[in-house]
Amino acid sequence: MAAAHSHEWRAVCEKFTNAQTLTDVESRNDPENDPFRSKYKARELLREIYCSLKSFEAGEGEEESGGQPTERPLDGQREDGLARLSGDSPAGLRAAKLGAVEYYLGVNHVDTEELSAGQEHLTNCMKLLDRCGVSSQNVSLFIHVRNQLGILWAGREEMETAQGYLETAESIYKDYMKEDGSPPTDMTEYFTTEENLLTHQERTKRFELAYTHTMYYLAQVYKNLEQTERAATYCQSTLQRQLQLNQFSPMEWALNAATLSQYYITKGRYMEGRHCLSAATVVSGLAGEVPSEAAARESETESERREQLRQKRAEIARCWIKYCRNLLQDARKLLEDNIGELDTDRQEELKRERRRDEEEEEKGRKGAVLFGSEDTFDSIASVEEKVLCLYPLDFTEARAVFLVGQNYVTQAKEYYLMDGYVTDHIEILQDHSALFRALAFFEEDLERRCKMHKRRVDMLEPICNDLNSQYYLLIRRQLMFELAETYSEMMDLKLSVANRQAETESLDNHTIKKFNHLCSASVKYFQMFLDSLCSPDGKFPEHLEEDVLRPALVARFRVARLQNRLISSIPSVQLENLNKSLENYKYVVEYCESHAAAAPVVETELELSKEMVGLLPLKINRIKAKMAANN
Fold this sequence. Notes:
Elements: H1 7-24, H2 37-64, E1 76-77, E2 83-84, H3 90-111, H4 115-130, H5 139-155, H6 159-179, H7 200-224, H8 228-245, H9 250-266, H10 270-284, H11 293-296, H12 302-335, H13 344-367, H14 374-384, H15 395-415, H16 422-442, H17 446-466, H18 469-501, H19 509-531, H20 546-565, H21 571-594, H22 603-630
Antiparallel strand pairs: 1-2
């Protein structure tokens, strides 16, 4: 451009610098009653730059043609007959500069919530670039404008449209790196004097960061399109690139890595899940060291910053809890027999397979995508060593996983106190309870197993009874059901212990009293759950909603079973218990007969209920006959 070194061109460069400063720096201090003041000023400067560029272009056109209008020379011809300019040609550079101003105007309008105007400017940028081939002069702009359009359409929940723009940006990057790969011109350099041009290193960093944003946005789009595997892949690559470029906010990065771990956990990919969580733990420790400019903006005041750190570290701790809980629960599924007890043959088989797996583990680690440089990798590996990523196969291994999970429970509860974070605090307690339940499966000593379940009752029962049903009805229902099931498990264990210890089938009075207490406590909480479904006048619903259908019918079935198991030597009490049992079994059968959709939901319970509806009247009649004979 002939005017490139002129006074006028330096004025354009100065305006651009001022516009950038207004947008990136001064806008942060705009008053609440005029939040876009600096960005509006930046917009005016960008418009002036656009007019100057058009004026330069017109002047150069006249100079080239001796004062007569002329068409630009073409470097090539597109199939549709329209001119395609070389991206490196003077005409191509002029188009790129105009496109860049359109791009910045588009971003400005989007930032000030004027989406339609923003879309128009971004589309204008695309049209200008559409005349050009991709080159080192404009490839960065090609990618930035598609990123921005991807964000805009994703914000409108038009995910397929956003996907198209972002995948095109990805293809442009890959093609450019394959065919050229040199550090491309950054868009800001279009409006920079020669002495202020970027170094090759800075150009590379900015270009790679633009592509990192493409991958980040694609991860979000794929997630919204429920393409979870692709979303996870792009998310992990994004996180790795952010580390390599040293462009990340530590706590934000750590939280994203911890969130990614939850995807891997649900897929049973515990090696990847553990690696993500270990990396999150290490990187969250960098939060006070501020490794990048982005980290310096994590919070506006020191107190806010400390609060954010505490919260996000507590959230990472909760992800660790779920890792440990799921690992134990999945191990149980592998090891339990058809009645829910430890299958020792299966256990030995899996231990033999484990020895082969351990030989393959290191090979698998080397093939996985890992976070960090050599420096951080050692730190991440040291965290990984503290917890298994293979399924625990005995009590010792299960306890080691449990203790890690319990340690993170303590950390999470330090932030999520009951006073102020009721829902979060209770969810953490429920996870703690689930850790105890999963560990109990591996415990061979039935008395110790029972004590583990008692710990679950001790942590959940006071909260269940204190919670206000008006505000926390759904949570109370969850707690009621879990307490009912826990008391039932304890009842079965106490009976098993008593039967092992007794030389005959008879039980002593203390054991019977303890058994009946646990049985009645289970009935109590199942009944509380059922009562919570009643209308204000105490009427049980004629039609059960889908979200409570199975829990309600299972609760009825379990109450029926428990009433039948209560031990009493008094015939009238026996009769009362059996009649209550029969009433609940009948309810399950009759509800499923009148609501066909319910039968498949409780198939096993329904079959047993039908059987008991046929058997219990015989037992009731025998007791009645015995009572009549005694009278």
